[in-house]
Amino acid sequence: MTTSKRGIEVLQDPLLNKSTAFAESEKEALGLVGIVPDATETEDLQLQRVMLQLAAKPTDLERYIYLINLLDHNETLFYRTIMSDPARFLPIVYDPTIGEACLKFGHIYRQPHGMYLSMARRGKVKEVLKNWPQKDIRFICVTDGGRILGLGDLGANGMGIPIGKLQLYTACAGVPPQYLLPMYLDAGTNNEQYLHDPLYLGMRKTRPSTEDLYSFVDEFMQAVQEVFPKCCVHFEDWTGVDAVHLLQRFRDKYCVYNDDVQGTAGIVLAGMINAAKIKGKKVSDERYLFLGAGSAGIGLADLLCSAMVQEGLTLQDGQGHVYMFDINGLLETTRPDLVDFQRPYAHKHAPTRDFVAAIESIKPTAIIGVSTVGGTFTQRVIEAMSRINERPVVLALSNPTEHAECTPEQAYTWSNGKAIYAAGVQFPPVHFKGQTFLPGQANNFYIFPAIGMAVFATQASRITDEMFIEAARAVADQVSSDLLKQGLLYPLQSNILETEIQTAARVAKLVFDSRLARVERPADMVAFIRDHVYKPVYGKGPALATKAA
Fold first, then answer.
1. CATH number, domain containing residue 63
2. Is 165 a catalytic residue?
3. 79, 94, 257, 323: the active-site residue
4. Residue 319 sits in the same domain as residue 402
5. How many domains does the chain have?
6. Per the residue annotation, which of 18, 27, 165, 509 is the catalytic one?
7. What angle do CA 362, 363, 367 make, to 5 degrees?
8. Is 282 among the catalytic positions?
9. Could you report the per-residue pLDDT of 140-174, keeping only the tens digit for each?
10. Is the separation of the CB atoms in 309 and 322 below 8 Å?
11. How far apart are CA 154 and CA 189, in angstroms?
């Protein structure tokens, strides 16, 4: 890296700052003698100090604040820390701590990490985007804060989500951080608490009409193509109807995807592939009942149906394997309140608002919770599933932790050890009747960073559902038979970078096969992906002291 900065300016730039790791020659060349300690430390020694300071923090929220502050000052050391122990740090920089951080975002805010694009800038979006200092942006993760995790409308406080999501692109799959741009699209909020909070960081207006919002998003999408022509737009945590309709609006025109719709679907498909494998079956042999029929549930159902079509079913037959249940009961053909994307899953059935009765009638082999309501998979629910299935599949996907439909201990206990379980957040191993069960985490971070790396490396012009299906199969294939026997549906997080490199390579192959790549096809796909992986090591030698041209 070249720079014209000297002295304290170098230390104030998180991309250049090495803190105590500058070599003597760099200290002299950059005017740092006397400004930093005379000691020259290795990154490993710096990491020891970070770990020591983190250990002194009383809560994970305090650890989150510390790590974000580290990112403000030293980007390389931040990623060195996160990537040194992903299983430890992912729950701090993302689920479940990120939920608490978003609720308090305006109160713990210190400095921006991304762009804030307000609807008040209508007609000037392109000029706003040009203010970002990095001119080659490959991914924008954008939210309007309309539905953050299971927490609802958080408005500007939702900015913590795109910040955290893009950190996972790097930490989990090695996408270089300089190409990533978190963004909050400020369309106001209907959250009265925040509208009256003096420390709230967003517009103090209620949300606009759908037509008004979509026309502004149209301007945003067009401006992105002009300012960042190689950019993929990642929609995150929009309200359910908007999530589905905006994806439909743009997916055939731009390189775009929605992680809540497609990423969640991919990781659940990976889990169902392995759950079926444990039972000696295929995805198309299962019968599914969802609790929750919003954007996440519909996205899951659509991708499951696409996977069943790949296994030989017709789309209509695949949809016949999927039932859905929401706050107003079972989706069935007499319901007058259904939106367009729910209707394929509304089957002929007597109306019911009793989830257990629906289980006993439909006889699903898998229940999938995307309700955002904790504790909804009650003892009656699990016992009903266990009566009709030798190995009931129970996916309690809502997060943060308190929103999980049931805990693994409840699922294993109430099913007498029969359940195949995963959650949207990480739970510890469960010991039950002499067995140790490993509840998996059906978290999108197995999928979307790998998709991101594949798109980054291939410069894909579009993202397709088939890429998410291939990513799901690649993730599922990386779980050993020994771990499957303990009920684990997903790879261990401790080796997540290697898992995602292998997944990205398979997705990249599909990109080339689909003729969507904008670079030359390599001979070795895994090596090709490895060549693009970011490594959290400091720049070396006198180049730091060379003035930029």
1. 3.40.50.10380
2. yes
3. 94
4. yes
5. 2
6. 165
7. 95
8. no
9. 999 999 988 778 999 999 999 999 999 999 999 99
10. no
11. 7
